[in-house]
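Subject: Proline--tRNA ligase structure
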Amino acid sequence: MSKKLPTRQEDYSLWYNELVKRAGLAENSAVRGCMVIKPYGYAIWEKMQRQLDDMFKRTGHENAYFPLFVPKSLFEAEEKNAEGFAKECAVVTHYRLQTDPDKPGKLRVDPNAKLEEELVVRPTSEAIIWSTYKNWVQSYRDLPLLINQWANVVRWEMRTRLFLRTAEFLWQEGHTAHATAEEAVAETRQMLDVYAEFAEEHMALPVVKGVKTPNERFAGAEDTYCIEALMQDGKALQAGTSHFLGQNFAKAFDVQFANKEGVREHVWGTSWGVSTRLMGALVMAHSDDEGLVLPPKLAPIQVVIVPIYKTGELDALLERIKPIQMGLIARGISVKLDARDTERPGFKFAEWELKGVPVRLAIGARDLDAGMVEVVRRDTKEKMSLPLADIVASVDQLLTDIQTNIYERAKNFRAAHTTRVDSYDEFKRMLDEEPGFLLAHYDGTSETEERIKEETKATVRCLPLNEADEEGICMVTGKPSPRRAYFARAY
């Protein structure tokens, strides 16, 4: 194996970047600001996709696909949305190249091939989707319209980091239309719950559900709901958002329906999404200085079997291992049998540890003769000998235990790094000395929020949904505050 990873303590950012590359998740591409998601990383994303897609369909949503390009006039139609994304847009201005007469073998943009109207490469799809919904909705019978798409989007980023911030990334975006505001708000809250359930049950990632402040709200939304997670360096990461759009996009694109009384009204909208940023959250929330720690529910390989043998023994040993492998597969467990004869067992152990495989079985003829199997769990590195007779059931239960333990460990970390603070001095000290979630009072004004952000680089992550209001005094201005907000520095 290559040299050891940098430790989290030494340089958290370098540790993250190196781990993503060395574990085979992703790498930088020839296109500045864009990444290549490698097969092992994409396998994790596929498992995320599959699970989320099932959850969306269980809640009545259907998948569709809309164009990558958005005419600028459509993009401009909802002013707040257009203004919010304008600085991040990639724009297509020409439709053809030609050979360069001054540089043989080279190409240039054909100056005569300028588009009549520029095309924005979608940073988000509200504009193109709502312009389409105008043709799909005429009557209350056409509602609700519950559509999701899996797609790529482009947001021009100058400072990029694999998975967390890239110029192009993969995501899903749901866009729904409803007859009433109440239905749309219920949809927004329902999808937030879906995201929270996915994060906690599958990613083993505890999250805080909350509402964004107007300063942090999605451009063009009436309300933005979010789930916020805490990473091991004490920074927050927004893991998913769900937006109540009111009638803003319906009015911008004139999406109306005839209600049961025959009166025409504008529909009410929502949009919601999660992206490959979740991959970054998965790495940063659970992994250690030896490599990835993957929750079994999202691990591409849940169990790796490493045969331990002497020269000439491998084929006979593989025949004896096969029933164990088949038994695990029959239980729906993904298994990798690492029978490479080009690497020593120690190399294989380190490689699969780096890749975060939850359970490792090291099996030799002597172990099988004794009716035992050596088992190592990735989350705690605990090594144990388990009876061969019960090995399939034992490993199945062990995967469940690992999933639970990874979640509990992350939950305990969050609890230990969530602090109630009452003074601005303490707030600033904690951010520097013991970063994490800070629960603090502020007066709710944009001015105070901006001042805190400018002076400390911390932002209001959310106003929590499931915690009781508690009146207090703003730590900055001394004005009344109806409730505490979650603050943190963030990705």
